[in-house]
Amino acid sequence: MSANRELPRRISARPDVFGGKLIVRDLRISVELVLSLLAQGVAVEDLLDDYPELEREDILACTAYAHAVIAGDTLATVSDRVEVLGRLTQSPPRSKTGSFAKMGDPG
């Protein structure tokens, strides 16, 4: 299944879980927690080890959602960005500059 169709399944909100905060795949893991850990420098591989129920695509969905909030994008744009990020993470390692330059800034 493509990332475009998976994103709405990966991030949701339920009033009975964490007071309606956004959560990952109906797990008791909030998008806020994932983003906070990444911001603190926790590596994606460490997140996956510490939270075995998480998948790499879940983390990509969280970062794509954060970007969308900042950029004011629509869910469709977020889904497209998750697909691009997924392809980038499957590529051979590159410098950080190369990864960001490849995605580019449309503005």
Description:
- This protein has 107 residues and is mainly alpha-helical.
- The protein has a single domain (3-101), classed as Winged helix-like DNA-binding domain superfamily/Winged helix DNA-binding domain (Arc Repressor Mutant, subunit A), CATH 1.10.10.
- The protein is built from six helices and two strands, in the order αββααααα.
- Strands 1-2 form a two-stranded antiparallel sheet.
- A hairpin with an 8-residue loop joins strand 1 (11-13) and strand 2 (22-24).
- Helix 4 (56-71) packs across helix 5.
- The longest helix is centred in the middle third of the chain and has 16 residues, at 56-71.
- It is globular and about 30 Å long.
